[in-house]
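Notebook, bench 3.
Goal today: get a predicted structure for TGF-beta family profile domain-containing protein from Zosterops borbonicus so we can plan the truncation constructs. The sequence was checked against the plasmid map this morning, with no discrepancies at the termini. Length recorded as 352 residues. Pasting the sequence as submitted so the record is complete.
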Amino acid sequence: MLCVLCLVPTVQAFTQEEFKEVVLKQLGLSEVPKLHKRDLVDLVIPDHVKNKYLSMLKRQRVKRRALPSLAGILRGIPGHTEVLYSDTTTRQKLMFDMEGRIPKNSEVTMAELKLFKKPLDRANLPAKQSHRPVSNARVSVYWVQRQHDGANRTSLIDSRLVPIRESGWKSFDVTQAVHYWLRNKRREPMFLEVWIEGERVGSYASEMAKAVSFTSQDPRDKALGKPELVLYTLNLDDYGSPGDCREEAVTGKSTCCRQKHYISFRDLPWAQHWILEPAGFQAFRCSGGCPPLPRALRRPGPGHRSCAAAATSALPVIYLAKRGNHTEIQAAEFPNMIVERCSCLTDGEALV
């Protein structure tokens, strides 16, 4: 049975210049925002923008496959754990040795960072109370990418409110961070940062948040419950999706399938400063050939069949926009940016 499927061109078909034009059009911009250094100094993403982005991100995290298997629990690399304090934020750095921990021909379907929150020490609470009670702290996890010049770039991975007066294990979804690390193919550990901030703007909420602390990777920290990275994987020999290309597939010689195709905003000169999140994304693209239709199903005309996107999904982003003389930070979704399924198309039609 043939059905007509209206397709919007996806990122796979564009050159970098065409991709830029598509992104600008999606955001209603006529040109790349012209930013000054002062626009990027002490840049803080507002909570409402961060929450909107995380909400869109979680909607996109649809589990494509079931039956995950536990690949292992990583307890990090023992060593000195750096904790940085400022007026509004506490930052704790974590490091995990990933090399050789993920089985060959497998896919990481989920990664979970587990942090043990220490019992509350009331001596760390502010002496002066506020008429507006504060019950939670905002805890966010960032992936840290070390640059060649020694600087660090961070990407927001997950964020949640943590009750200040409760202790115990707290879990964060860091699947995207592991995918970033795999994409970079570094032979170095994976670095994460945990940021602890007030649940709302104001000095009292910030002071309350400073009472929140997690166990560290430092061997001198004798508290039970070291940070853990739990990896769940699928053996692609057993559960591989028939719609995805295998690693050994040769472009143009395999049958129509979906191939990995990563796009890094950090590596695009026109995007690296004003698209703040994500650092990049797995866009996928369609590859391979299409066998001719049986004679009974052929239609009059050329009837050329090609492998193309038959289903796509949106990409959530956080970006900077110039509004007159000031800069705004906004969250939005780019539709049709991720290829979910490929199919053989004949003159705009898909065989389903």
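The mean pLDDT is 75. The first strand starts at residue 2 and ends at 4.
Flagging this for group meeting.
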